[in-house]
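Example record used in the benchmark description.
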Amino acid sequence: MNDQSDSVHEAIDAAAETAEDMSSAAARQIPDTRGLRLARIGGAHLLAWLAAMGLFAAADSWSTVTALPVAGFLCVIAGIIAGFVTATLIHEWFHFMGAVSAKGAYDIAAKPGLFVYDWKFEENSLSQFYRMSIAGSIGGVVAVLLVWYNLPTDSWGRAAFHGGALAAFVFGAVIEWPVLRRTRLSGEPFAELSKIDAGVLLKAFLTAAVVGAAWAAILR
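Model output (C-alpha cells):
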C-alpha cells in the first residue's frame, strides 16, 4: 500500500510539474507587444471607470428612493469619485492620442496604471511635446462638457459628479500649465517636469477641491 501511495504522489507531482512547465512555455510564446500592453491598460481603466460609475449609480438610486441623509452623503462622495475618475481617464487617453497624432516616440507602459505610455523626451521635439501635453487639457475640457450635457444637476450627488469632473481638469491644469510655460522659456520639458514635487501636488489638490466644491454648489 505504501508503494502504491508513493507512486500516486509521484504521479501527481509529475503532472503538476508538467502543467507548470506547459503554462510557463505558453506564457513565453505570447509576445508582449505594444498592442497587448495597451489593451491591458485600456481594460484596467475601463474596469476602474465601471467600478466608479457602478458605485455612483447604486448610491444615486439609494438616495433617490430613500432620501436618507446617509444615502445622500454617500451619493455625494461617490459622485466626486466618479466625476474625478471619468475626467482623469479621458485626460490621460487624450494625452495618448496627442502623442500618436504628434508621431512622437513613446513606449506603452509595461504594467497597467494611470499613465498609458512613457514619453521619450530625448527622441521628441518641443512641438511634439506641446501637442501631446495640450491634448490632455483638451481631453479635460471634453470630459467636463460630456458630463455637462449628459448628467442633470437635480441632486447634490449629481452636482458632485460635475464638481469632481471639473476638479480633475483643474488638478491637471495646475500641474501641467506651469510646466508648459516654463518649457517655452527653457526648452527643457523633462527638467521642468522634474520640478513637480509634493508642494505642487498639494497646491493642485487644494485648488481642485475648492473649485470643484464651488462648481457643485453653484450648479445645485
